[in-house]
Design a protein that fits this description.
This protein is an alpha/beta fold and about 650 residues long. It has four domains: about 5-230, Rossmann fold (3-Layer(aba) Sandwich), CATH 3.40.50.970; about 240-355, Rossmann fold (3-Layer(aba) Sandwich); about 390-560, Rossmann fold (3-Layer(aba) Sandwich), CATH 3.40.50; about 575-640, Alpha-Beta Plaits. The chain is about 35% helix and about 15% strand. The strands form six sheets. It has a six-stranded parallel β-sheet. α6 (about 145-160) links the parallel β6 and β7. The longest helix has 19 residues, at about 215-230. The radius of gyration is 28 Å and the shape is globular.
C-alpha cells in the first residue's frame, strides 16, 4: 500500500509537493483525473494512476481535452481534477472561458503547475493572470502541508460556488519535499448520472451551456464576490511578525518560505512582518488592509508577474487608507527582479537595500568548504547517446545543405527543441508552441506565388502529433500547402517521462489500448506518407531528398526509432561499436573531425594525444549511427545477438 492511500489521520510523512496534491485530491474523494504530461505537473496523474483503481485517470491528447473530460465528470456528479503545466492552460483556455461561465456541479479543480525561471519550459509565463481573466477563484499553497489542505478544500469551494477552482503550484513546490500530516480518506459514492431535463437556467438539473447573455456573467461575478467573502477569514492567509513592522512583506506561494528563511537568517523578526496570501484571487481585502494600516513600507515578494503587487495597489487606491503614507517596493521599483524565479538571495538583496543592512563578512578563520573537486569538462547541451533525434537532425541538415536552396526547418516543443542548438546542428529556425512548427510550415508552404522557392520542413514528436499537429496538417492538405512534415516518433512522451499517448498500445495505467497509427492517419488526410528508421542515414536522406524535391502538396516522413532511455531500450545495445586505429586518420582525414566535432555524440570522444576518435564504452548506447558518419569507415559496428 502506498503511504498516499493510508487512512491514518494525524500521521506525518515526507512527501513531494505533487504527492501532497494527490493526497489532497484523494481526501476530497475525486473519481476522475485527466491531464497532459508537462514538467512540473506530470507526477500528479502518474501517481494517481498507480495507487488507485477506483479513480479513472487519463493522459488526454491535450490539455483542452483533459479539461473537457474532467468537466464531464463534474456535470455527472463526480469530483474531478484537471492537471497541466502553465503552457497547457493556454491550450485549455478556450474551453475554460466557457466553463467558467457555465459553471460546474460536483467539485472540479484545475491544478496548474507554473515554472518560474523556465527550468523545464520555453517560457516562464504564469497562470495567475488567467484566474482574473476567467473570473474564477485561485488558491496558492505556500508549503507542502498547504498543498494537501488547499487541494482538498478547493473541491468544497468549487461545490459551494459551482465554479471550477484553480490551484497554482510552482516547480520548487511541486518537486521539493516536506512534512505532510494526513487527513481522513472518505468512501465516496461513485455513481455518475447527468441530469439535463430541468429548466434551461437551472445550473444543477438543466442543460449546461455558456450563452452570451448578461444573466450568466452577472451570476458568475456574484459567485466571485461570495468567494471573496469566504477568503476574508481563510486560515490560508497568515501573518507573522511585529504588530507594527518597519517593513511588511506581502508574499504568496513558495516565496513565503524564502521570505521566512531570510528574515530568520538576518535576525529581522522584530523589524519585518510577513503577510502570506494563500487565497490569491479574489484578493482578501480585509486582512490586507488591516496589515497595511500598521506599516509604512511594503515589499512584494512573488514570482513572476507583479500580480499581488498590482491587486494590492488597486485595493488601496479604493480604500480609506492614505496612499501618501505608504511606500511600495517590488517589481515596479526593481527591488525584486521582473524575470526569473525567486530565491533567498534575491530576497536578501532586497531587504539589505531597503533596511540598509551591512554585509556580514566571512571570518578569516572560517573553515574551508572541503577539498576542491576536479573541474567538470565543458560540454554543450546535447542529445543523449543513441538518441534517434541526433540522427534525424543530422539527415535533415545534410539534405537541406545538399539541396542548396536555403531550405529550413520549423521546430516544435519537445526534446527535439535542442535542434536549435549546436547539438542539433542548428537545424531548427523557428520554435514556439506545441504544433506551431506544422502551422508555420503550412503558412510558409503557400508563399510560392510570392516567389518563395525554399524547401520547407517541419518537425514534431509522436505525442505532439496527437496533441496539436493534426489540425495544421489538415489545414495544409486542404489548402494545398507545400511542405514536408517529419514526425520524430520515439514511442512515447520522452521529455516528461515516457507517458503513453494514443499512438501506443497501452493507456495511462499500462493496460492494453488500441493504438492509432500515425502513418494511416496522415495518409487518410491525403498526405503522401513514408516511414523510415532514422538510424539508417542513407535511406532516410534519400527519402527526405525525394520529398523536398516533390511537385507540391504535403509529405509526411515518419522517422520511427524508440528513445534510447525508454524502458524497452534502456541498458540494451544493437551493436558493439569500435574504432579501428589503423583506419582513423584523425586530423588528416579531411572530414574536419565530423565524428566528434560535428556529429558530437557523447559516446564518441576525441583522443587528442593519439589524434584519433575513441568510443566511450560507458556512455555508448550501441546505435551504430556513427559508423555511417565516418568517411573512412574507421568506426565499425558489430551486430550483437
Amino acid at each position: 500500500m502506498s503511504l498516499l492511500t493510508r487512512d491514518n489521520p494525524g500521521e506525518t510523512h515526507l512527501m513531494m509537493g505533487n504527492e501532497a496534491i494527490v493526497r489532497g485530491a484523494l481526501e476530497a474523494g475525486i473519481s476522475v483525473a485527466a491531464g497532459y504530461p508537462g514538467t512540473p505537473s506530470s507526477e500528479i496523474i502518474e501517481t494517481l494512476a498507480k495507487i488507485s483503481d477506483d479513480i479513472y485517470t487519463e493522459w488526454s491528447v491535450n490539455e483542452k481535452v483533459a479539461l473537457e473530460v474532467a468537466a464531464a465528470a463534474s456535470f455527472a456528479g463526480l469530483r474531478s481534477l484537471a492537471v497541466m503545466k502553465q503552457p497547457g492552460v493556454n491550450v485549455a483556455a478556450d474551453f475554460l472561458m466557457h466553463l467558467a461561465l457555465s459553471g460546474v456541479r460536483a467539485g472540479m479543480v484545475i491544478v496548474a503547475a507554473d515554472d518560474p525561471g523556465a527550468l523545464s519550459s520555453v517560457n516562464e509565463g504564469e497562470t495567475r493572470l488567467y484566474a482574473k481573466l476567467m473570473e474564477i477563484p485561485m488558491l496558492e499553497p505556500g508549503n507542502f502541508q498547504e498543498a494537501r489542505q488547499m487541494t482538498c478544500w478547493a473541491f468544497e469551494l468549487s461545490e459551494t460556488l459551482h465554479m471550477p477552482v484553480l490551484v497554482r503550484t510552482v516547480t520548487r513546490l511541486s518537486h521539493a519535499s516536506g512534512n505532510v500530516t494526513l487527513g481522513k480518506l472518505p468512501k465516496p459514492d461513485r455513481k455518475a448520472f447527468f441530469q439535463f431535463n430541468g429548466d434551461m437556467l437551472d445550473p444543477m438539473e438543466g442543460p449546461i451551456m455558456s450563452p452570451p447573455v448578461g444573466i450568466k456573467h452577472d451570476s458568475q461575478q456574484k459567485k466571485l464576490e461570495q468567494a471573496a467573502q469566504l477568503f476574508e477569514d481563510s486560515p490560508f492567509n497568515t501573518y507573522g511578525g511585529p504588530e507594527s513592522p518597519e517593513l511588511l512583506i506581502i508574499t504568496t506561494s513558495i516565496c513565503d518560505l524564502y521570505s521566512k528563511e531570510v528574515v530568520a537568517l538576518l535576525n529581522l523578526e522584530d523589524r519585518v512582518g510577513i503577510l502570506k496570501i494563500g487565497t490569491t484571487w479574489p484578493l482578501p481585502a480585509q486582512p490586507v488592509l488591516e496589515r497595511l494600516a500598521r506599516t509604512r513600507n511594503v515589499l512584494f515578494v512573488e514570482e513572476v508577474q507583479p500580480f499581488i503587487e498590482e491587486a494590492v495597489k488597486v485595493l488601496v487606491a479604493g480604500s480609506h487608507l492614505d496612499l501618501s503614507s505608504l511606500t511600495f517596493y517590488g517589481k515596479y521599483s526593481r527591488h525584486i527582479p521582473t524575470a526569473g524565479e525567486m530565491t533567498p538571495e534575491r530576497v536578501t538583496a532586497a531587504l539589505s537595500t531597503l533596511l540598509q543592512l551591512e554585509p556580514d563578512p566571512v571570518s578569516q578563520d572560517y573553515p574551508p568548504r572541503g577539498t576542491a573537486l576536479p573541474p567538470i569538462p565543458p560540454r554543450e547541451i546535447s542529445f543523449c547517446p543513441g538518441c534517434p533525434h541526433r540522427a534525424s537532425f543530422f539527415s535533415i541538415n545534410t539534405v537541406l545543405q545538399l539541396d542548396n536552396r536555403q531550405g529550413f526547418t520549423c521546430g516544435d516543443i519537445g526534446c527535439y527543441s535542442m535542434g536549435m542548438l549546436p547539438g542539433g546542428f542548428f537545424t531548427l529556425k523557428t520554435l514556439h508552441s506545441m504544433g506551431s512548427g506544422s502551422g508555420l510550415a503550412s503558412g510558409f508552404g503557400k508563399l510560392e506565388k510570392f516567389g518563395m522557392n525554399q524547401p520547407v520542413v517541419a518537425v514534431c514528436g509522436d505525442s505532439t502529433f496527437f496533441h496539436s499537429a493534426m489540425p495544421p496538417l489538415v489545414n495544409a492538405v486542404h489548402n494545398r500547402s507545400s511542405f514536408t512534415l517529419v514526425v520524430l516518433d520515439n514511442s512515447g512522451t520522452a521529455m516528461t517521462g515516457f507517458q503513453p499517448h494514443p499512438g501506443l498500445p497501452v493507456d495511462t495505467k499500462g493496460d492494453q489500448a488500441p493504438p492509432i497509427d500515425i502513418e494511416k492517419v496522415c495518409r487518410a488526410m491525403g498526405a503522401t506518407t513514408r516511414t523510415c528508421d532514422p538510424f539508417d542515414l542513407e535511406a532516410t536522406q534519400k527519402q527526405l531528398l525525394e520529398f523536398i524535391n516533390g511537385d507540391g502538396g504535403v509529405r509526411v516522413l515518419i522517422l520511427k526509432q524508440a528513445c534510447a532511455l525508454s524502458p524497452e531500450k534502456r541498458h540494451t545495445r544493437a551493436f558493439e561499436v569500435t574504432v579501428d586505429p589503423d583506419s582513423c586518420l584523425g586530423e588528416a582525414c579531411g572530414c574536419n573531425r565530423i565524428c566528434t566535432r560535428v556529429f558530437s555524440c557523447p559516446g564518441l570522444l576525441w583522443d587528442a594525444e593519439n589524434n584519433q576518435a575513441t568510443i566511450n564504452d560507458v556512455l555508448c548506447a550501441g546505435c551504430g549511427v556513427c559508423a555511417s558518419v565516418c568517411p573512412q569507415n574507421a568506426i565499425q559496428r558489430k551486430e550483437l545477438p
